[in-house]
Amino acid sequence: MPKNHSIISFEGLDCSFKETNFGSFVDSLHQTRDKSGFEIHTESFPRYGYWAAKPAECWLNGYYDRNILQHYPMAINSLYNLDRMDYWLRKDANGITNLDRLDDKEKFHYFVFDRYILSNTIYNPIHPGEAHVEDIIFNTDEFSIPRPNIVVWMRMKSFDVLANLVAKKQNKDKNELDIDFLRHVWERSEMIIHSDLFKKTNIKLFVVECLYANNKIRPRYEISDYIWNSGIAVPN
Fold first, then answer.
1. At what angle do helices 18-31 and 220-228 cross, to 10 degrees?
2. What φ, ψ does residue 128 adopt, rounded to 5°?
3. Which residues pair with 11 in a beta bridge?
4. Taking the model in full, what pTM does it have?
5. Apex CA 160: angle with CA 150 and CA 10, to 5°?
6. For residues 151 and 41, what is the distance between their CA atoms, to the nearest angstrom?
7. Per residue in 100-128, pLDDT tens?
8. Short-list 223, 194, 229, 220, CA closest to 209
9. Which residues contact 7 (CB under 8 A, 6 or more apart)?
10. Where are any strands of DSSP class E within 77-133?
11. Rounded to an integer, what distance in angstroms lies between the CA atom of residue 79 and that of residue 88?
């Protein structure tokens, strides 16, 4: 990645305050924009409403047979990767793509995402059997999907707290309705953030604890202030 661009993705399990803190971070970034003159590009994935996100939406809403497709995790990954690929390669009214903007040598470009590739990687290749860190595949290069510079992982260290938050959520998708699936995903995420996976991929992992030591939820303003003051918005 050129040093005058930064791709920052907010990742985490369902109900881990990703969207809230993604929004707070982007708001703070916009407040400093006039001073620096950089460009800000944001997106939440999956991009519901775009044709490229429709296959992932069908998977989440149960239109595809879960018992069959869950045994083909790379197929599920491809449903999500199609959406990401479309984001980078879709031309705007001027014929410019976001991939073109990565090559812009005149301006600094921030790309800040609510979910990107890590959540996809954690949620999908877990069937059948137990998962291992070496099973992780960032199969994005084949889709012309750039890897992030920084992953902000919103960590819920207690599965019970996470499950309680998910239980209170309205309009759950098929993943959120499957408690055994959620526990498997949570165990996988804990394994990954304690591994050396990110050292091997040159992606900086920034883990944000959403719970205190006693498993009480940290106030959201405290979490957002912590993220902004961490320095991840400062270009490398």
1. 50
2. -90, 165
3. 153
4. 0.89
5. 15
6. 16
7. 999 888 888 999 999 998 877 787 755 44
8. 223
9. 1, 111, 113, 116, 146, 147, 148, 149, 150
10. 109-114
11. 15
